[in-house]
Design brief:
The structure holds 2 protein chains of 2 kinds. Chain A starts with a strand and ends with a strand. Chain A is an alpha+beta fold. Chain A has 2 domains: 73 residues, Alpha-Beta Plaits; 58 residues, Alpha-Beta Plaits (2-Layer Sandwich). In chain A, strands 2-3-1-4 form a 4-stranded antiparallel β-sheet. Chain A has a two-stranded antiparallel ribbon with strand order 5-8. Chain A has a two-stranded antiparallel ribbon with strand order 6-7. The mean pLDDT of chain A is 88. Chain A contains 3 helices and 8 strands. The radius of gyration of chain A is 18 Å and the shape is elongated. In chain B, strands 3, 4, 7, 10, 16, 17, 18, 19 and 20 form a 9-stranded antiparallel β-sheet that branches. Chain B contains 6 helices and 26 strands. Chain B has 2 domains: 275 residues, no CATH class; 104 residues, no CATH class. Chain B is an alpha+beta fold. The chains are: A alpha+beta, B alpha+beta. Chains A and B meet through loops of A and strand 3, strand 19, strand 25 and helix 6 of B.
C-alpha cells in the first residue's frame, strides 16, 4: 500500500549541505514534492515536503531521517476557508504563491483548492472579510 | 415602443412581468435584437457587492432612566467610536470608524480587525452590542455615564444611510514602485506584480443606466438584503467624465446615496471588512431594477464587459500625489480573463468586489419582482446628468 503525507523537516546547520533527500529517493524509492524550502536566520534548513511511497519504505525513510538528525513533524497546520464568510471577491487570487484560489470562468466563484495550499499564511490577513483561518 | 412604470407594475402585480438580469439581457439582445427584446422585457436587474467606505447607520437607542444626552459627549459601540453631534440619543456609526486603542498602522501594515463596518454587521446579525457613553449632564439629562447592551430588535430606529455607494466605474490599481503597497484597492505587489479592480462591470447598476434615465431620487432598490431607496446623488457624483460611444463612463463617474431600514436587512449582504494597512469598511450589496421604458434604455442595459473600459492607475505615486495620469485603459472582459498587459508586461488581475455575489443579488431582485413582491417606483427627481455642469473639485489649500 502506498501512502502520501505532508511533513515538515528541520535540518540542523551541520546537515544543511548533506544530500539527504537523494537518499530518500535512491534508498527508499520515495517520490517527493517540495512545498516550501527555506534557510532560517539561524542557518537551519526548513523543508516542507509531500512524501509518497510504499508504506514499509515510507516508515524506513522517516526512521532514516530521524537517525540522521533531521527533526520530522507532520504538517499540522491546515488553512481552511469559512465558507459562509467568503464573499468570492478575489482579493486572494493574485496573492497566493501557489495559485490555490481559482476563479471559475463562468460563475466567477472563487474556489479554494486546499490540496495546493502550503500553509504560508499570506491569505489570512489579505482576505478583506477574514474568511481564511488556521486549523490545527 | 414605450412603456410606463405603471404598466410594468400592473404586469408585476399579476405575476406576468418579464424580468432578466443585466447578464442575461446580453444574450437575449444578441439573439432577438434590440427592438424585439425591448418589447418582451419589462425589467432588467443589476447588482454589485463590494467594499463601500462611505456607508454608515443612524441609530436611536431610546432614553435611559434617568436620561442621558449623548450629544456633546462620547459613545462607543463595541469600543468603536460613534458620532454623537445630534439630539440626545441619536447616533451615527460610520463604516471606517476604528477603536481608540487600535494600533492602526503603528504595526505596519495594520490589521484593522474590527471597526464600524463590523459593528453594523453584528447589529444586523441581531447580536448584542456593548454601548458605553459619557456625557456632561444637564438639568434635563442629568446622567453622565452609561454602560449597557443594545440590540437592533429593541432600539427605536436603525437606518442605513450610505452617502456614496455603487460607483459608476472605478480605477484599476497597480504599483510601479519597488515595495509592496497596502491600499484600499488591496495589497499591490511591487513592479506591476498584480492589478486590482473593483466594478461589477456589466452587472453594475450605473453601468446599465449610464445617463441616469431611470435611476433617480426615490428609486426603490435591493439594499443589504432588504429594501432601500436612492436618497440622492452620492458624494463626488461626477457625470462629466470621458465616455465611450455607448455612453458608459471610462472613469469613476456617477454615485448613489442610498437609505433603508437596517432592521429588515441581512448580514449576508452587509459584511464588516478589513483592508490590511488601510482600514476597516463595509462590503455592501446593492441591486437596482431598470424598467425597460424604451428601446434606448434596453440598449443601455445590454452593455457587456468587453465594451466597458477602466483606467489603470499607479498607486505608488500618481494616486497619492493626485496626479491625473493613467497608464492605459482596459476592458472588464480583459480584466476578468485573469491577465492584462501593462507596459508590455503580463500582469495578473484580481477583483475586490464579488461578481459571483453581484449575480446573486441581480437574480434575487429578479425573483422578488417576478413573484410580485417588489414593485418599481417612479423617481421623484432625476440625478444630476451631464447637463448639470457638475465639476469634480479638488481641495485647494489656502494659507491661514
Amino acid at each position: 500500500m502506498r501512502i502520501s503525507k505532508k511533513i515538515v523537516l528541520h535540518f540542523p546547520p551541520n546537515l544543511v549541505d548533506k544530500p539527504i533527500i537523494y537518499h530518500l529517493v535512491k534508498d527508499y524509492d520515495m517520490e517527493f514534492n517540495v512545498l516550501k524550502a527555506s534557510v532560517t536566520p539561524k542557518e537551519e534548513g526548513l523543508l516542507v515536503l509531500e512524501l509518497t511511497g510504499a508504506r514499509k519504505a515510507y516508515d524506513g525513510a522517516i526512521r532514516f531521517l530521524k537517525e540522521t538528525g533531521v527533526e520530522v513533524q507532520p504538517l499540522v497546520k491546515d488553512i481552511a476557508r469559512q465558507e459562509e464568510r467568503c464573499t468570492h471577491c478575489g482579493a486572494c487570487v493574485t496573492i497566493c504563491p501557489v495559485n490555490a484560489f481559482v476563479v471559475d470562468p463562468t460563475t466567477r466563484r472563487v474556489d479554494f483548492v486546499s490540496d495546493k495550499c502550503i500553509a504560508c499564511d499570506l491569505c489570512l490577513r489579505i482576505c478583506p472579510v477574514r474568511a481564511m483561518e488556521t486549523r490545527l | 415602443m414605450t412603456k410606463t412604470i405603471e404598466e410594468i407594475n400592473e404586469k408585476i402585480a399579476k405575476g406576468q412581468a418579464v424580468v432578466v438580469t443585466a447578464e442575461e439581457v446580453i444574450g437575449v439582445v444578441e439573439k432577438k435584437g434590440v427592438a424585439r427584446a425591448a418589447k418582451e422585457i419589462d425589467v432588467v436587474t443589476t447588482g454589485t457587492f463590494g467594499p463601500m467606505c462611505s456607508s454608515g447607520a443612524f441609530l436611536n437607542t431610546g432614553h435611559s432612566k434617568p436620561r442621558i444626552k449623548f450629544g456633546g459627549g462620547r459613545v462607543y459601540l463595541n469600543d468603536v467610536p460613534a458620532y454623537t453631534g445630534l439630539a440626545a440619543v441619536d447616533l451615527f456609526i460610520g463604516a471606517t470608524a476604528t477603536p481608540d486603542d487600535d494600533p492602526r498602522n503603528r504595526n505596519y501594515p495594520g490589521d484593522f480587525k474590527y471597526g464600524g463596518g463590523h459593528v453594523i454587521e453584528d447589529l444586523v446579525a441581531g447580536k448584542d452590542i456593548l454601548l458605553v457613553a459619557v456625557a456632561y449632564g444637564t438639568d434635563c439629562y442629568p446622567r453622565k455615564k452609561i454602560e449597557t447592551w443594545i440590540n437592533i430588535k429593541i432600539i427605536n430606529e436603525a437606518t442605513l444611510f450610505n452617502i456614496r455607494n455603487a460607483y459608476q466605474n472605478y480605477n484599476v490599481a497597480v504599483n510601479l514602485s519597488d515595495r509592496t503597497l497596502y491600499t484600499y484597492m488591496g495589497v499591490l505587489k511591487p513592479r506591476l506584480g498584480n492589478a486590482n479592480f473593483s466594478s461589477a462591470g456589466q452587472l453594475s447598476p450605473l453601468m446599465n443606466d449610464p445617463y441616469y434615465k431611470t435611476i433617480g431620487i426615490g428609486t426603490k432598490i435591493f439594499l443589504g438584503g432588504g429594501v432601500g431607496y436612492v436618497a440622492w446623488h452620492g458624494t463626488q457624483h461626477n457625470p462629466n467624465v470621458l465616455r465611450g460611444e455607448n455612453g458608459v463612463p471610462k472613469r469613476g463617474a456617477g454615485t448613489l446615496a442610498v437609505i433603508g431600514d437596517l432592521k429588515q436587512m441581512n448580514s449576508r449582504w452587509l459584511v464588516g471588512t478589513s483592508f490590511l494597512g488601510y482600514g476597516s469598511t463595509l462590503t455592501v450589496g446593492i441591486g437596482v431594477p431598470i424598467p425597460i421604458l424604451s428601446e434606448e434604455i434596453l440598449r443601455y442595459t445590454s452593455v457587456k464587459d468587453s465594451d466597458i473600459f477602466a483606467p489603470i492607475v499607479d498607486y505608488s505615486k500618481t494616486y497619492p500625489e493626485r496626479e491625473p495620469d493613467v497608464l492605459g485603459e482596459v476592458s472588464y472582459a480583459e480584466l476578468r480573463s485573469g491577465h492584462i498587459k501593462i507596459l508590455e508586461k503580463a500582469v495578473p488581475t484580481a477583483s475586490l468586489s464579488s461578481y459571483y455575489k453581484a449575480s446573486e443579488i441581480a437574480a434575487t431582485l429578479k425573483e422578488w419582482i417576478k413573484r410580485g413582491e417588489f414593485l418599481l417606483t417612479n423617481p421623484v427627481a432625476p440625478l444630476p446628468g451631464v447637463e448639470s455642469g457638475i465639476v469634480f473639485k479638488p481641495l485647494e489649500e489656502r494659507s491661514i
